[in-house]
Amino acid sequence: MSIAMFFTKDKLRGRLDEVALYRYEKTYPIQKFQAAEDMDGEIAARPNNVLYDNELTIGENWSGRDRYVWLKTTITFPDTKTGTRLIGYFDFGNTGDGHNSGFESLLFVNGEPYQGVDQNHREVLFPDSFAEKKVELVFRLWSGLEGGGTPTIQTHQLKEAFIGYLNLVIDDLYFTSKATLKTLDQLEEKNPTYAPLLQAINRAYLAIDWSTPGSEQNLASMATANQILQAALEKMPKNFPIKVAAVGHTHIDVAWLWRLKHTREKAARSFSTVLHLMEDYPEYLFLQSQPQLYAYIKEDYPEIYAKIKAKISEGAWEADGGMWLEADCNIPSGESLVRQMLYGQKFLREEFGKPSSFLWLPDVFGYSWALPQILRKSGIKTFMTTKISWNQYNRMPHDTFQWRGMDGTEILTHFITVPEKNSRISTYNGKMTARELVGLWDKYQDKEVNQELLLAYGYGDGGGGVNREMLEMRRRYDAMPGIPEVKPKSATTYFNDLHETINATDQYVHTWNGELYFEYHRGTYTSQAFTKKMNRKIELGLRNSEWLSVLANLKQGITYPTEKLAGIWQILLRNQFHDIIPGSSIKEVYDDALIEYTEAAVENNALISNQLTNLTTDADQKITLWNSSTWSRPRYIEISPDNQAAHLAFYDENNTPLPAQKLANNAWLIQHPNLPALGAATISVKETANILEQPSFHYKNNQLETPFYQITWNEAGQFTSIFDKKNNRQVLAENARGNVFQLFEDKPMWHDAWDIDLFYQEKQKEISALDSVEITENGPLQFTMKQVLHSEKSQITQWIHFYHESPEIRFETEVDWRDRNQLLKVAFPVAVHASEASYDIQFGNVKRPTHWNTSWDYARFETVGHQWADLSEKNYGVSLLNDSKYGYDIKDSTIRLTLLKAAGYPDPDADLGIHQFTYSLYPHQGDFLDGETVQAAWELNNPIFSSNGEIQSFSLFQVTNPYVMIDSIKQAEDGDGIILRLHEFAGTHGEVTIASDYTITSITECNLLEENETSLSNPTFAVAPFEIKTYRIHLA
């Protein structure tokens, strides 16, 4: 007779719920607590000297937003009892999914942090040593936040609290039965394991006497049922050859729907829980990446940190992951990604004895083509992620493969394929369920190559981590027939084993050559524009402060400001976290970011100013011009001399007059023909008679002629023609208009700040209401037209600059942005036909299609570019440069730059206010290399700067290869010599010689961590396409 007709599984689920009721003996219910308001909400507050002036009782509600409350009780624990464990149970509030909102707390026992307590961690195991002793329990409750959107009061209830016993036998029956039933849910009835497994648990439960629930007879029969079930399971073969390596984990977003200060507390709660559970589960292995979190814990909770270090030494706790934190990989510069690795690996080595061998980035929104090279040159040999499973159109064809970077470097890459509940996506927050264990294998696409898979389990996003149930279920599943065995294994061991498997296989192992473009969250290239702007400015500012500090040390013997620069870098790196810089956090996170960015900018600017003062000598009517670029070529410089005379002349060191134009703001625009690369030269300022400036530009009736162009505008201020005189061709496409502001309805399906969905293009309008036009500059070097436009809610002011000796058309822009759920782009349809466009990325560039032939093509309808994007034919092209934007789309022959987004969640006020940015149209002969797009974009982003005083003209470093850029000049981390980093950006082999006005006494090549050095006999070497090279140099 079929047992299905008896609804056996349904019956057993009900019985299991009843069994669960008898796991606990609630010996000492706690009815009330002393209470005190924690008004300050300070980081790492302790229960010492808290004045308890209130009471909270069980059943009472408590509420607030970002509210902290202290609860205290003193308990005399009962004596030990055979077959039990002392346990506490505390149900004080609701915690949102993933710990993304709601209640959390930290339990202090006798004044020491003990364990996190929340909705997913209500149990607290206590040692037998507490028996018959008086123990002080103090909880620091946090109400939590609403999880983004409109600030909302969180209401919780003290539902239950008790100290008692955990019946180990009934607990064993409960978890074994639960694992059995969950396994049956994953097996088909025709599976040979299904029937005997169901029969085994059914027979066991028939032995339970339910005539008097809770009686000694009832409890004894549960013990009998457990013996029957365990005996039956021991006899059943495992019959599943697949292995699962289980590593405990808690993903803690450094900021997201909570602030940085909240993260510090989340880390303390989560880590104390890990440590406490390890006392009872010695097999438990835990991984936590992100040295930033360890640095927080070291500062805030040194007692927790000491225990973590001990567990790391024992091998139970794995501090790995590579980067300083799990950074976004779209927006940060190449040098920023290097510093993420440098600071992360340095911390892991110095604090825990070894750097990481793998990069752990489960939740990042896309992966730069530069990463494989950066990782391999930072001691990383494996890369892991999960987020790419969220792709909107295409699933990556493999889950274990070699990823080839743009320079040819390969890194073994593995995707975790644990299925998210009720979803097609994979998760890094496993819950140790049968569905996950079976689905992990079912989803995996490289079964013929590898039969051991990785499961990262534990509550995460907002921390929390593994709970006791997950550890118990891991033990049961490991022995359960019908599903994979589940063994604790560190991620390091797993990845080492995976390398051995891949090296030994005779099966095909795929190689993916190209960026790992994430087909989702495309709005993160644009959301929270101010954050992205500050990131760009501080990245470039740090480059300047570092090379100037090297120079000040060389010239003046001034101590290199190592600690100050490290502090600024850590602010920058921290805010590159994958939910801060992408623009996907709550408003308070960006309030905090503004404070930190301002601090970093002020400190860095002060450092630059001090070094400029140190490096120059006071001299009347002398100005020193500083060139941070790798090349010497004609440059425009805007300066504001102390001499306020109406008419001035400027002369270089050879007393040759320099072209100059006085601007409407009383500054001067001058042109210098050849400032030394990474160096400086001094110019002289002299009063002169009024010299009639002959304009190089002629404007009349919406038409302008410049040395480069003939231009016409329409009544909306849009370009209707840009005729390139030097190349004898039209820049704009036929019958097209350029510099068109396009406003799109931006209402993505799921994630407001994160996403732009392709259907945004269905609703478009132009901002064409032109309020005013004014010619503000018309001289020998520059012509400027000011335009003011408005939409229904926003206003755009532009100063459009044209130059005498540059083809760049610069659009200096200010937007008073008041729109919501709108996307602002600027469009330039150009007379260029090409099937691919080029985009600036870290340490090079990438080509992407301009067509939508396949789903892989149209999935990239919005892509990331750093300082420029370019569309070129063989002999002509057009680049669009920018100083703070990252979102581009180039379809057919239209180049568009995404300027602003207006998300309503998680920050309801995202991007409202004044924005200032600049973009430039840059037509050129040849492709972007021939046209020197890279140089023009750098000059827009990092212009010549000036200081009063004089200096002997010099160049700190030069390189001979025109396709090589110097990325960083800094003091070595160990203080021994100068580190110079460069990269090749044309994608071609070549030779490079490094030269300096100083004498190079030694040069050694090293990796990005400044180790593994190889001495060079001279500073000439070969460079491969897109290769990053790092050298330790000594100068005399």
Automatic annotation (TrEMBL):
One Pfam match: Glyco_hydro38C2
Keywords from the named record: Glycosidase, Hydrolase, Metal-binding
Protein's GO biological process: mannose metabolic process; oligosaccharide catabolic process
An annotated Gene Ontology molecular function: metal ion binding
Glycoside hydrolase family 38 central domain mapped to chain residues: 519-597
Keyword match Isomerase: no
Coiled coil: none
Record keyword Ribonucleoprotein present: no
Family of this protein: Belongs to the glycosyl hydrolase 38 family.
Protein name stated in the entry: Alpha-mannosidase
Biological source species: Listeria monocytogenes
